[in-house]
Amino acid sequence: MFAEVLTATPAVDVDPTVSTTLVGYSNLALYSAMAVFTIAMLLFAAHLAALGPERVERSAAGSRGSTRRRSRELVGAGAPTDGPSQDAVRAGEGDDDGMVAAEPSPRARKSAGTALTVTYLGTALVVASVVLRGVAVMRPPWGNMFEFAVAGAAAVAVVYSALAKRNKWEWLGLFVVGPVLLTLGLALFAFYTEAAELVPALRSVWLVIHVTVAILAIGVMTIGFSLGIVYLAKKRREEKGMGKGSFLETLPSAARLERTAYGWNMVGFILWTFTLIAGAIWAQKAWSTYWSWDPKEVWTFVIWVIYAAYMHARATAGWEPRKATWIALAGYVCVLLNFTVVNLYASGLHSYSGLK
């Protein structure tokens, strides 16, 4: 399997318009990216392990010291020590959950920096794989399940790499690199398709517009999904009480994580809305109808409805953010089902997986 994929030697006649040499380099870059992302995932795991107990203890110590200093200032200023001001001091300042942030340990900072550097390398390799595949076939490299999966993984990696350092999202790396690595593995070992020309129905400018936006939407939704998972874990930890020994105590508050996840899911929903509209326009040009109740069309609409329900629930008074987050997670599960189960087992006008 490895040799066949790496050298791009098909069992049938080779398409003369495809550069098998470039396809081989593309596959080599993809295998290299998987190896690099595996190292990055282990480094992010090491970062979380180093981040946990030591930083929590330092946070608690810093919080107690800050509280004592603030209390002395209040007493010195003649303020009562048993009023609301002192209650606010006990609760902490500057964060939604009352915790005072502390700098990570040198070991945690080192592992985070190394993990991000390795992630940048893995991202460059998977992007190179996509570009080489596109040049090899002289078309947008997302004409089948394999190419779409690789392009989607590349989109997630690029988005995370662009924002991780600025937002100090090293703690999120494990929850992003893990799914990226899993996607690349499925693409290579379950969805791999020999490079070839597009089927006639896909030879349209709308392939670039519709599928590109869909890839971006799924990439953004993946970040929102990862943040939602972390939010639920953090929320549960807060309700149980802030104990020591877990990296969760060092993360932003649950409220802040939920707002960030909501923002990313909102962007993903907007992009998915455009995907749905662009797909209808393309369908009219290709099949003379905007809507044909094709399985892919139906599931694309189902995903849109679920994310719309999430947005509505999130904006409705009386709905707990945690319940709304579960709706968003259900929407992302439907995205995965739409890409895998529907593509592989549902016959229709969108049967372009390359595996049938």
UniProtKB/TrEMBL annotation:
<feature type="transmembrane region" description="Helical">
    <location>
        <begin position="171"/>
        <end position="192"/>
    </location>
</feature>
<dbReference type="GO" id="GO:0005886">
    <property type="term" value="C:plasma membrane"/>
</dbReference>
<feature type="region of interest" description="Disordered">
    <location>
        <begin position="57"/>
        <end position="107"/>
    </location>
</feature>
<dbReference type="GO" id="GO:0020037">
    <property type="term" value="F:heme binding"/>
</dbReference>
<keyword id="KW-0472">Membrane</keyword>
<protein>
    <submittedName>
        <fullName>Cytochrome c-type biogenesis protein CcsB</fullName>
    </submittedName>
</protein>
<dbReference type="InterPro" id="IPR045062">
    <property type="entry name" value="Cyt_c_biogenesis_CcsA/CcmC"/>
</dbReference>
<feature type="transmembrane region" description="Helical">
    <location>
        <begin position="298"/>
        <end position="317"/>
    </location>
</feature>
<dbReference type="InterPro" id="IPR017562">
    <property type="entry name" value="Cyt_c_biogenesis_CcsA"/>
</dbReference>
<feature type="domain" description="Cytochrome c assembly protein">
    <location>
        <begin position="148"/>
        <end position="350"/>
    </location>
</feature>
<keyword id="KW-0201">Cytochrome c-type biogenesis</keyword>
<dbReference type="InterPro" id="IPR002541">
    <property type="entry name" value="Cyt_c_assembly"/>
</dbReference>
<keyword id="KW-1133">Transmembrane helix</keyword>
<feature type="transmembrane region" description="Helical">
    <location>
        <begin position="115"/>
        <end position="136"/>
    </location>
</feature>
<dbReference type="GO" id="GO:0017004">
    <property type="term" value="P:cytochrome complex assembly"/>
</dbReference>
<feature type="transmembrane region" description="Helical">
    <location>
        <begin position="204"/>
        <end position="232"/>
    </location>
</feature>
<feature type="transmembrane region" description="Helical">
    <location>
        <begin position="262"/>
        <end position="283"/>
    </location>
</feature>
<dbReference type="Pfam" id="PF01578">
    <property type="entry name" value="Cytochrom_C_asm"/>
</dbReference>
<keyword id="KW-0812">Transmembrane</keyword>
<feature type="transmembrane region" description="Helical">
    <location>
        <begin position="324"/>
        <end position="346"/>
    </location>
</feature>
<feature type="transmembrane region" description="Helical">
    <location>
        <begin position="142"/>
        <end position="164"/>
    </location>
</feature>
<feature type="transmembrane region" description="Helical">
    <location>
        <begin position="28"/>
        <end position="51"/>
    </location>
</feature>
